[in-house]
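Progress report, Aim 2. The chain analyzed during this reporting quarter is listed below.
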Amino acid sequence: MVRGSTHEQRSGTTDAPGAGMELLILGIVNTTPDSFSDGGRFLDPESGVKHAHELVANGADAIDLGAASSHPDAGPVPPANEISRLAPVLDALVAEGIAVSVDSCSPEVQRFALARGARYLNDIRGFPEPELYPVLARASAQLIVMHSIQRGPATRSAGDAATLLDDIDAFFAARIAALESAGVARERLILDPGMGFFLGSGAEPSLRVLRALPDLRTRFGLPVLVSVSRKSFLGALTGAAVGARGAATLAAELFAVQRGADYIRTHDVRALRDGLAVLHALGSSGGSGGSGQGGDAA
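Predicted structure tokens for the chain:
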């Protein structure tokens, strides 16, 4: 079996996440022609499966598979088109025992994904349709409940950083209560506060939320997923184009881990794994003493 997201196969590279959890990494595969970061590269099912294998080999605990883009310039995708893009990749990965998260806000696609063995559903709208709740309650998949100021696909709204944390708190309180009331077990929920355009067009909203991750975890007592990979706010901070945001992405991901993130969703699994290995080594006991001088100046 190819390495997947069983609880016995977590990263174990950092002790930062709380509540006894170790960090899990979701590697991103977009089977779309218009993804903001890699549009069209993995639209062909064979290339999508191959890329998923590479991400798992590099240390991904699960694959986050998306077939409809949600950035501000993306157009709507009919559920039937999403399913046709998802099906061959999802089926191939599930057959190999690889844990798959399906990234979709379509109830029709979500039902399909559950029936085909997805272990996670990732919804940018945070599962707002009560008519889907009986299906979710009967399922066993983990639910990634995402917050956004738009309550749906991203726009270039400026947002209000001053009220953002209150909005996140109110959104999760209401959505968790609704899902629990419908019979969805609380321990199946994972909270994603949103990042980039989902919080506002500038950098400050995302920075504010990253700094407040410990408060979010304490408030709800649930695991938190962070997805900063190549996001717009990193470009706003550095001026880097999407494809050149690797260093900025890693810095933000490591900060999120140190602030208690339980899941990181990323394009570059290998970079994150390497960064976590160094972070863990720096924080481990038994290192050299106080001189600060190592044995190799190189």
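The CA atoms of residues 31 and 44 lie 7 Å apart. The beta strands are 24-30, 62-66, 100-103, 120-123, 142-146, 189-192, 225-226, 263-266. These observations will guide the mutagenesis work planned for the next reporting period.
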